[in-house]
Amino acid sequence: MLIGLLLPALGFMLIYFGYGMLENSGVVSERGFSPYFRERTSAVIAICLNLLPLNKFMKARATQSMRGIVLATVVLVAAWVIYFGKYILS
Question: How many domains, in total, are found in the chain?
Fold first, then answer.
């Protein structure tokens, strides 16, 4: 479960700050996007990073490790929906 929480957290930081660097250099812009677009998208991509260790554990038939990754992913998705749902559904 620890991998399932740390990998998305590190991935979010890399994606979010990488996007910020691109914006500062003028490559991308936030203009015209809905509120919290960068944060929402970065979080979804970071949560999807859990597919990498999940696939590895599935090939190794490590069911307990898979269960931990899936549990962490479900918790992160629920947190995402609770936090960003009001921006999506409005």
Answer: 1
Per-residue pLDDT of the chain (90 residues; tens, 9 = 90+): 899 999 999 999 999 999 999 999 989 887 878 888 899 999 999 999 999 999 999 999 999 999 999 999 999 999 999 999 988 887
* Burial class, 43, CB count within 10 angstroms (exposed 0-12 / middle 13-18 / buried 19+): buried
Q: Helix crossing, 63-88 with 51-59: angle to 10°?
A: 160
Instruction: Show the domain range for 7.
Output: 2-27+36-88
* pTM attached to this predicted model: 0.88
Q: Where are the beta strands (DSSP E) in the chain?
A: none
Token pair recorded at residue 63? 């069911």
- Element holding 57 (H helix, E strand): helix 51-59
Give residue 46's identity as a one-letter amino acid code: A
Which tokens sit at 58?
């599935």
